[in-house]
C-alpha cells in the first residue's frame, strides 16, 4: 500500500477521494469508513494506519532523555539542546552533572512518579519512558493511550551503556562485572531505534557533533536519513554489548559458546580488497577496541595491512626472543627476508652497497632487504625498534610501499612522509596491544566460520633449540642458536609449507607455499645460491655505467648469477648495455668453488622433514644446523642423514603451519 499513491486508491476501491483529504490520513479514514464496503474499508484503513506510521523527513526535537556513563562532552550536548529549546530528562549521575553545570534538567523519577530503586537497577523501566519512546506519532490509538496515561513524547534518547567490557578488562570480580551489565539502557536504545521515524537515538560521543550541526541547519530538527543511520549504529552497539556479555558468561563456566556474535566497528574504507574488482572493502576494529596500529601517513590497502600485521608479529617476536633490533621485508604476506642487527663483514658491505655508520635498526633492515633484494622490490618494511633518521634515509633510497614500527623520531617521520610524493604508508604499531575479543581468532570463508586460538603468544626461544638435540654432534654455538631462532620465527609467519635458511643473523633464503617440503628446500636453496654468489669476486667486480640505478644493478647481478646462457639474444643485448665492460660468464667451476666456502648455515622447517631427501638437498647450501619440530615416523632416518653429514639437529616440538 505504501507504494501506491492515494490518487490510485479511488480507482481501486471505486470511490472518489477528495483532493483536500489526500494528505490527511485521519480525516481520510473517516471518509473511507462512510464510502466503502466493510471488507474493502478494512483493507483501506489498514493501509492508512501504515501510512500514519511513516515519519516526515524532519522531526523537531522537543524533549530528550539523557543517561550516560561516559560523560565526555555531555555539557556541550546539553548546552546545544538548551539553545534549541529542548526539555531534558535525566537520571542519577547524569542529572547531577547537568544540575551542577547550571543546565535545566528534570529527573526521570519526577516525570514517572516512581523513584529509582534497587540500587539503581530500576529507574527507566517504566511505561511513561518506553511509551514515550515507542509511541507512533499520528496514530490515533497511540495518541489516545498517551493522553490517558500522561505519557509525553520523547524525541531524542542519548544513552551510552555501563562499561561492562572495561570492567572485565580491569580484572573485576564476578559480582562487580554483573552489576555493570546494563539493562535499562539497551531496552531504551532498542525502543528508540525501532521508532526511529520519530525518535533520534544517540549512543556514542562521536555522534554529538553531527546531530548538533544538523539541528542547527534544520531549526531544531533531525532528518530521517540521520535517524536511520543512528538507529543502525544503535542496534550494532547493543549487539556488540550483548556479545561481550554472552562470551564472558560462557568463559566463566569454561564453555565453548553455542552461539558466537562478533561485532566490529568500521575503522576506515579501503580502495579495494586484494584486487580492484573486490569491492566494497573496509577495515574494522573489534567493537569497543582500537586497531593495533595508527596510520601516520598514506592510505594503506588490503594487502598492505596483511603484510603489516604479519611482519610486525615477526619482528616483535624476534626482538623478544633475541634481544636485538629486528627487521623484516614482506611481500604478499610472507617474508622475502628477515634479520637482526649483526655487524656486516667488509665483503657484505660491498655486496649490499651498504652506507657507512648504520644504526642498529638500519642495519637490521639492510640485512633483511638483502636476503633477496629482487623479491624485496616494492616490499613492506617492519622494524621492532623506533625508526631513526639513519633508517629512514636508507629506506628512502629503496622502492617500498610502507613501514610499520613502534615509533619514529620526528626527523624519520618527516623523511618517510615525503617518500613516494607523500603517499608512502607509515603505521605506528602498539607494542602493548591486546585483542579485546580474546585469544580466539575467527575467519569467515564461503559461509563457514573457522575459530582457533592464535599462537602469537607461543614464543620461539633459544632454550627450545637446546633442549632436544637428536644428533650425535651436539656442538651448537650461540651464533647458530640465534640463527635457528630467527629462521624459526621467520617461517612461523610464512605461508606453508615453508623452509628457511639463515646465517649471520639474517635469512638468506625463504621457500614458501609449496606442497612438497623438499620443493621448499630446493626453492629456498636457489635463493641461498644467489645470495652467496653475490659475494663472488666476479659479481663484486661488475662495472656498471654511472647512470644505472640501484634496483637495476640488483636485478642485473641476479640475472648474471642465473646465467648469461639462460638469456634470450635480445635480453642479453639489453642486459649488456648496463656495463662499461661486458663481463665474462660465471662458470660451473666458479659456482662449485665458491659454494664450497659456504658453511655454518641454519635450516628451519615449519613441520617435520618426512624424508631424508631434504637433508641430502640442503647440505649443498652449506647447512650445518637443522631446526625442526620432529614427530615424523621417519625421524630416525632423517637424524641418520644429519649424522652422516655431521650436522647438529634439534627437535623443538612446535609445528608452525601458517595459512
Please state how the strands of the largest beta sheet are arranged side by side.
Answer: 10-15-14-13-11-12
The proportion of residues forming helix, as a percent range, comes to: 40-55%
Q: What's the story with the biggest beta sheet?
A: 6 strands, mixed
Q: How many E-type strands?
A: 22
Q: What oligomerization state is this entry in?
A: single chain
Number of helices in the DSSP assignment: 27
Terminal Cα span = 52 Å
Structural class: alpha/beta
What is the arithmetic mean of pLDDT? 87
Low-pLDDT stretches: 1-34, 50-55
Which band does the percent of strand residues land in?
15-25%
Radius of gyration: 34 Å
> What would the principal axes of the Cα set say about the shape?
elongated
Write the layout of secondary structure elements.
Blueprint: H1 6-12, H2 25-35, H3 38-53, E1 58-60, E2 63-68, H4 74-83, E3 87-90, H5 92-100, E4 106-107, H6 108-112, H7 127-134, H8 140-149, E5 156-160, H9 164-169, H10 174-179, H11 184-194, E6 200-202, H12 208-217, E7 221-223, H13 224-252, E8 264-269, E9 282-286, E10 293-297, H14 302-322, E11 326-331, E12 334-340, H15 346-351, H16 360-369, E13 379-383, H17 389-396, E14 400-405, H18 410-417, E15 425-429, E16 440-445, E17 448-453, H19 462-466, H20 478-492, E18 498-503, E19 506-512, H21 517-533, H22 537-540, H23 550-562, H24 569-576, H25 588-595, E20 601-605, H26 613-618, E21 623-628, H27 635-644, E22 648-651
Parallel strand pairs: 2-3, 2-5, 3-4, 5-6, 13-14, 14-15, 20-21, 21-22
Antiparallel strand pairs: 1-7, 8-9, 10-15, 11-12, 11-13, 16-17, 18-19, 18-20
Amino acid at each position: 500500500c505504501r507504494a501506491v499513491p492515494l490518487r490510485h486508491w479511488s480507482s481501486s476501491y471505486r470511490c472518489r477521494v477528495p483532493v483536500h483529504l489526500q494528505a490527511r490520513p485521519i480525516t481520510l479514514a473517516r471518509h473511507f469508513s462512510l464510502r466503502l464496503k466493510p471488507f474493502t474499508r478494512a483493507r483501506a484503513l489498514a493501509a492508512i494506519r501504515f501510512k500514519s506510521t511513516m515519519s516526515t523527513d524532519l522531526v523537531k526535537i522537543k524533549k530528550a532523555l539523557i543517561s550516560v556513563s561516559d560523560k565526555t562532552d555531555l555539557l556541550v550536548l546539553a548546552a546545544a539542546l538548551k539553545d534549541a529549546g529542548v526539555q531534558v530528562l535525566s537520571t542519577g549521575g547524569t542529572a547531577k552533572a547537568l544540575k551542577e553545570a547550571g543546565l535545566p534538567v528534570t529527573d526521570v523519577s519526577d516525570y514517572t512518579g516512581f523513584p529509582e530503586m534497587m540500587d539503581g537497577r530500576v529507574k527507566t523501566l517504566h511505561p511513561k519512558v518506553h511509551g514515550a519512546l515507542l509511541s507512533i506519532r499520528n496514530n490515533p490509538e497511540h495518541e489516545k493511550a498517551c493522553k490517558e496515561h500522561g505519557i509525553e513524547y520523547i524525541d531524542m534518547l542519548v544513552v551510552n551503556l555501563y562499561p561492562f567490557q572495561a570492567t572485565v578488562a580491569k580484572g573485576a570480580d564476578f559480582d562487580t562485572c554483573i552489576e555493570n551489565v546494563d539493562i535499562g539502557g539497551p531496552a531504551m536504545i532498542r525502543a528508540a531505534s525501532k521508532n526511529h521515524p520519530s525518535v533520534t537515538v544517540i549512543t556514542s560521543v562521536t555522534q554529538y557533533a553531527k546531530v548538533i550541526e544538523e539541528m542547527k541547519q534544520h531549526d531544531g530538527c533531525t532528518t530521517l536519513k540521520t535517524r536511520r543511520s543512528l538507529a543502525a549504529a544503535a542496534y550494532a552497539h547493543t549487539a556488540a554489548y550483548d556479545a561481550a556479555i554472552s562470551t564472558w558468561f560462557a568463559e566463566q563456566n569454561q564453555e565453548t559458546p553455542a552461539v558466537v556474535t562478533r561485532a566490529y566497528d568500521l575503522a576506515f574504507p579501503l580502495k579495494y580488497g586484494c584486487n580492484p574488482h573486490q569491492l566494497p572493502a573496509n577495515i574494522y576494529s573489534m567493537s569497543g577496541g582500537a586497531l593495533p596500529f595508527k596510520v601516520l601517513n598514506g592510505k594503506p590497502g588490503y594487502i598492505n595491512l596483511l603484510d603489516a600485521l604479519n611482519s610486525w608479529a615477526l619482528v616483535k617476536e624476534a626482538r623478544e626472543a633475541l634481544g636485538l633490533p629486528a627487521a623484516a621485508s614482506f611481500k604478499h604476506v610472507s617474508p622475502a627476508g628477515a634479520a637482526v642487527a649483526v655487524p656486516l663483514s667488509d665483503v657484505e658491505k660491498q655486496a649490499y652497497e651498504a652506507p657507512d655508520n648504520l644504526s642498529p635498526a638500519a642495519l637490521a633492515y639492510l640485512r633483511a632487504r638483502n636476503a633477496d633484494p629482487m623479491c624485496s622490490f616494492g616490499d613492506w618494511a617492519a622494524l621492532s625498534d623506533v625508526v631513526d633518521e639513519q633508517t629512514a634515509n636508507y629506506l628512502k633510497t629503496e622502492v617500498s610501499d610502507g613501514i610499520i614500527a613502534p615509533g619514529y623520531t620526528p626527523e624519520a617521520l618527516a623523511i618517510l612522509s615525503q617518500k613516494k610524493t607523500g603517499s608512502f604508508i607509515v603505521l605506528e604499531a602498539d607494542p602493548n596491544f591486546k585483542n579485546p575479543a580474546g585469544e580466539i581468532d575467527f575467519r569467515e570463508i564461503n559461509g563457514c566460520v573457522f575459530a582457533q586460538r592464535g599462537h602469537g603468544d607461543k614464543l620461539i626461544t633459544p632454550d627450545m633449540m637446546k633442549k632436544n638435540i637428536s644428533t650425535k654432534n651436539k656442538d651448537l654455538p650461540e651464533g647458530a642458536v640465534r640463527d635457528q631462532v630467527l629462521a624459526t620465527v621467520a617461517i612461523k609467519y610464512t605461508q606453508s609449507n615453508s623452509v628457511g635458511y639463515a646465517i649471520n643473523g639474517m635469512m638468506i633464503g625463504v621457500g614458501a607455499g609449496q606442497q612438497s617440503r623438499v620443493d621448499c628446500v630446493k626453492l629456498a636453496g636457489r635463493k641461498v645460491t644467489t645470495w652467496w654468489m653475490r659475494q663472488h669476486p666476479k659479481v663484486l667486480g661488475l662495472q656498471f655505467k654511472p647512470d644505472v640505478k640501484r634496483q637495476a644493478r640488483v636485478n642485473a647481478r641476479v640475472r648474471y648469477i642465473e646465467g648469461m646462457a639462460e638469456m634470450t639474444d635480445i635480453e642479453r643485448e639489453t642486459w649488456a648495455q648496463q656495463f662499461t665492460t661486458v663481463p665474462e660468464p660465471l662458470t660451473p667451476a666458479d659456482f662449485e668453488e665458491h659454494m664450497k666456502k659456504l658453511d655454518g648455515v641454519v635450516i628451519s622447517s615449519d613441520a617435520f622433514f618426512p624424508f631424508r631427501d631434504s637433508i641430502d638437498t640442503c647440505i649443498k647450501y652449506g647447512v650445518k644446523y637443522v631446526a625442526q619440530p620432529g614427530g615424523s615416523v621417519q625421524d630416525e632416518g632423517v637424524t641418520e642423514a644429519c649424522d652422516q653429514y655431521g650436522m647438529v639437529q634439534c627437535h623443538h616440538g612446535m609445528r608452525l603451519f601458517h595459512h
